[in-house]
Amino acid sequence: MKTITLRCLGPAKQFSPSGDIKLEVDEKATVGYMRACLMAWLLDHPLKTEMQEILNISVFATQHKILLEEESIQENTEFALIPPISGG
Amino acid sequence: MVKRSPEITIVLKEGPIYPQAVLNAIGAKEHGGEVCFFGVVRNHNEGQTVTQISYDIFIPLAENTLHAICCEAQNTWGHDLKICIHHAYGDLKVGNISVGIGVSSVHREESFKACRFIIEEIKHRVPIWKKEIYSNGTGNWVKGHVFCK
Hints:
The structure holds two protein chains of two kinds. Chain A is of the alpha+beta class.
C-alpha cells in the first residue's frame, strides 16, 4: 500500500477543511481505483450525498494534465480533484 | 509568472487585474493591432445580487493549460502573436477585473480571433472556480463545465 495526497479545489474544498485528503491505495492502483477509495472515504462524511454528487462529475489531475481513469498512479505525485470549472 | 517564450506572458495573481499590466506585455514595432478583453465581476447573476466573487485556481495545471492554449493560438494565427493572460484568484469585489487577455499582431484580424479563442478556451479547459457571494450573505460555487472522464 502507498499513501497519496489528494488536493481538493473549488466546490470540492468541502471534502476536507485542510483542503487535502490522504488515501491509502494499492501499489498498482489506477485513477479509477483512487476514485473508488475516495467514494468509500466519503461514506462517513457528514455531507456524503452532496460530496458524492460532486465526485461523480469530477476528474483527477496532476500538475501537468487531466488523468484518464485507467492510468496508473505514480508515487510522489501531487493529485488534485477537479470539479466542473467556471473560470474567466 | 510563466514566461517560457518572449511572446507569451501568463500571470496568476491574488486580487484584481490591472489593465495596464496586460497592455505593457503586448505590442511590437511590427504589430499594427492590439486587442484586449477584460472580464469584470458584475453585480448580479441568475436573479441574485452578487457582492463579491471568490476565485480558486489549481495554479500549476492552470499555468500549463494556459500556455498550451496560447501555443494553439499562435499555431493558428501566427507565431509572431504576442499574448498576455492575467487571471485573478482570491476575493474580488463588483467592478474588479478577474481576467485580462491581450493579443497583438501584424494585422487586427488575428488579434481579434485569437483573443476570442483564448477566453472561450479558458472557460472550458482551465482549472479555475468561482464562488459568488450574495447580498444576503449566502454563497454558491458557479456551475461550470465538466471535463470528460
